[in-house]
Amino acid sequence: HPPLRIPVTFNPNKPPNGGPFSSARVNIPSRTIGQLPQGRKTIWAVGGGKGGVGKTTTSINLAASLAANKLQVLLVDLDPQGNASMGSGIDKMELNQTVYHVLIGMADIGLVRVKSETGGYDVLPANRELAGAEVELVEIDRREERLKNALEPVLTEYDFVLIDCPPALSLLTLNGLCAANGVIVPMQCEYFALEGLSDLVNTIKQVHANLNPELTIIGLLRVMFDPRTTLQQQVSEQLMSHFGDKVFSTIIPRNVRLAEAPSYGMPGVTFDKSSRGAQAYMQFGAEMIERIKTM
Fold it and tell me: DSSP characters for 182-196?
């Protein structure tokens, strides 16, 4: 078989010694990864370079894991599909006001947020109305800072604010990145996920340089992991080699119970606490709590 070739490398200061990450290079300044500025450190966007990488599952279950550790958490659903809202037990079809009304200035977060009874955290919910915000915000000055400004009055009420961003780079995603201090990147250890990661990193670099100098990558979370797959093992090892401790030590396994939980309007960590997926996300929450102590 021909040698495996994956089209990106990540560490400009550490040339790869052959292996799968050998055909191109993405330059990332060292300060862009995992080094937050002093001040607010807990507004984190959960982003991915493409859909279907476990982004919303990670947002929901990290929020529930942190809430289970007695922390106050706000989950912002910035995806018009409203999956984070539904997965938190909130019926998006019954909502009178959503994050859409917050972004266009028709409502305050304090009046729109909803308590997730199944997860133990607050949600700024979304539904299909949010898609209209893209058009309505075009004529507004500093439109990329609408979410950041709306969050300011409630920040002191929360230990963590998590923002579930849409998979595509849009004005909504830009609002999430401008409001956040850091980005958590869930990714599958697969070929196409690496290309998406390359695009996302370049987007974050541009936002960091031009709009939000506080933005950084907190770390990479390996999700939907199947250790029986040779390619996934190879990609995982290469990520560890190039990113080091910027790759979270927690690995989220591919797990049926995590996939079933949203249909019941529950995070996986409360749907079946004994499942491998739930235990992994609880471990991830604990890792995040420990990591922020060193930031």
Answer: EEEEEE-SSHHHHHH
